[in-house]
Amino acid sequence: MSFRINSNIGAMNANLHSNINNLGVNRSIESLASGSKLNNSSYNAAGLAIANQLSAQVSGMGQAIMNSNESVGLVQVADGALQEYGNILEDVRRLTIQASNDTLNADNKAIIQQEIDSLMSSADDIAKTTSFNGIKLLDGTGGSAGNGTFITHTGADSGETQSVSIGDAQTASILGGATIDVTTQANAELSLDTIDSAINSVNGLRADLGASQNQIMSNIRNISVTQINIASAESQIRDIDFAAESANFSNLNILSQTGSFALSQANASQANVLNLFK
Predict the structure, then answer these.
(1) CA 70/CA 82 separation, integer angstroms
(2) DSSP assignment of the chain, as one string?
(3) What's the pLDDT band for 238 if we cut at 50, 70, 90?
(4) Is the predicted pLDDT of residue 50 greater than 70, yes or no?
(5) pTM for the complete prediction?
(6) Buried b vs exposed e over 199-236: b needs ≥16 C-beta within 10 Å?
(7) pLDDT average, residue stretch 128-138
(8) Is residue 171 packed enough to be buried (19+ CB in 10 Å), middle (13-18) or exposed (0-12)?
(9) Count of CB atoms within 10 A of residue 164's CB?
(10) Structural domains for the chain
């Protein structure tokens, strides 16, 4: 059996494995410090591409949730204004019924007419001035198309939108061009039908807003769950298992130290090498 002292094959092998172990130690330290397995695209190119795509989707869903919450706020502002609008119409209806009674004289009815005119002016002001972030909500001109339709981007991808339509609530539109005239008993009776129709119109607007808000809230709950699941999937690809990586680091560190020791002994004399086995 031959024994060669002067050959450097052992030193070359020791150096090769030592370098491999050192690279592994450095990569393990990098992963433990960052918490990520994908600090370099060379570690897992396909995994990095998938993880980045999932990350973009999670971020997009987060913004979609914010968009939806802002739209809920817009709907609530509009609904709150319409609630007061409806209260005004109920007051007008009560006054109209009051004026329909012939126990009132012309002067009494004229005073009631003035009060009704003032209330309807207040209702019209609500429709013309109610806004969200400077955008008019109840005059039929809101939204990107200027027709009272507000579009919310509710998803992470193109085309994932929901629309909220808010009709024109100005008194001229709500009353259908009619007027509230209670100066005579006959006109008061006719005006009562007009007011009932206006109240139904406002209630219809509020019902549409309620349905739209429920739809948006349902979407928020859905994409919130989806966002969590996608984030979890990204974590499986990107994040390290600290327990497993710590064990891997310890193993590589031992091998690296052992390799360094083997390399330092690779070119020792035959006598010194034999002494290792004594």
Answers:
(1) 19
(2) ----SS--HHHHHHHHHHHHHHHHHHHHHHHHHHSBS-SSTTT-HHHHHHHHHHHHHHHHHHHHHHHHHHHHHHHHHHHHHHHHHHHHHHHHHHHHHHHTSTTS-HHHHHHHHHHHHHHHHHHHHHHHH-EETTEE-SSS--TTTTSSEEEEE-SSSTT-EEEEE----SHHHHTTT-----SSHHHHHHHHHHHHHHHHHHHHHHHHHHHHHHHHHHHHHHHHHHHHHHHHHHHHHHB--HHHHHHHHHHHHHHHHHHHHHHHHTT--HHHHHHTT-
(3) confident
(4) yes
(5) 0.76
(6) bebbeebbebbeebbebbeebbeebeeebeebbeebee
(7) 96
(8) buried
(9) 24
(10) 47-237 (1.20.1330.10)
Q: Is the pLDDT of residue 1 over 80?
A: no
6 has a pLDDT exceeding 90: no
Tokens 């009932």, residue located: 196
Tokens coding 115: 């009060």
Looking at residue 59, its pLDDT comes to 94
Q: Which amino acid is at 47?
A: G
